[in-house]
Amino acid sequence: MESSTYFNFFSERKVLLIILLNSATIFLQGFELSKAFSFWLNHFDNFFTIYFVFELSKNIKQQGFSNFWQSAWNRFDFVLVALALPSLLYWFGRETGNQGLDFLLIFRTARVFKFMRFFRFIPGVQSLLAGINRALKASVLVIVTFLIYNFIVAIIACSLFQDLSPEYFGNPLSALYSTFKIFTVEGWYEIPESMMANGNLTIFQEVGIKFFFIVILLTGGIFGLSLVNSVFVDAMVMDNNDELEVKVDDLNKKIDLLTAEIRQQQTSKFSPQE
Q1: Residue 155: pLDDT above 90?
Q2: Which helix (H) or strand (E) holds 247?
């Protein structure tokens, strides 16, 4: 009876409820609150950490460490709990005036990732994660090519416009960011317009700047980024397409068998009897 009650305390519904309450606590701690309210929020947060420690221990005891570690979700939970543990040392040590443990509070940032455990309860999440993994593998070459092209264009833009627009192309790192910003097609026209407004340029220089950024937009933004998206999405739904193709093949086989059976019946019906 006690064992049943113990495991029921860590049922999926209760774990999900604790995750939601912990996420709400993390959200509230981002506001300027009274000392009393913050005090109780900190205690609640540490309670949640202790709860997850016992829940992790229960899973390891129930499954065995080797079986437990085979699951990616279990490894993720283990890392989150391990990162949250140092903040408990500060919680217990502050009563004794041990202020040297203040730096351990930085590990509390790991708490926000606990909310990601919520995804394990979403139906079909394993299939979704498998699709993402498959899409990443299928599109890695396209992504690398896109990044290389971004790097090449950034170096060229840095060489051409370093003096004209140091804000956007003053160094290779700024040029990389500015080029990627143009590739995303978000406010791409603001950069060339700012460049032309900063200096006294001839009509040919302005036309050249406009042409350069239009080419970047077409090749990197409209064509390049669209290609990356299309390859990624196609790989994501590939499993669904394969399943649909199998169903269509099975349906065609059944139709062929049914057609052959109908023809056989018609042949035996109209054949001369002995």
Answers
A1: yes
A2: helix 238-270
**What's this model's pTM, rounded to 2 decimal places?**
0.54
For residues 108, 113, 117, 120, the Cα torsion angle rounded to the nearest 10 degrees is -170
3-17, 91-105, 202-216, 219-233: segment of lowest average pLDDT? 91-105
At 167 the three-state DSSP class reads: helix
pLDDT at 96 over 60: no
Residue by residue, DSSP assigns 64-98 as -HHHHHHSHHHHHHHHHHHHHHHHHHHHHHGGGT-
Q: What is the number of alpha carbons within 13 Å of residue 48 lying toward its C-beta?
A: 27
Q: How much is the mean pLDDT over the chain?
A: 76
Region of 45 (left: φ > 0; alpha: ψ -120 to 50; beta: rest) is alpha
Q: Residue 58 has which token pair?
A: 């229960």
Contact residues for 255 (Cβ-Cβ < 8 A; gap 6+) = none
* Residues 99-108 as b or e (16 or more Cβ within 10 Å = b): eebeebeebb
Report pLDDT for 98: 47
Torsion of CA 244, 249, 255, 260, to 10 degrees: 180
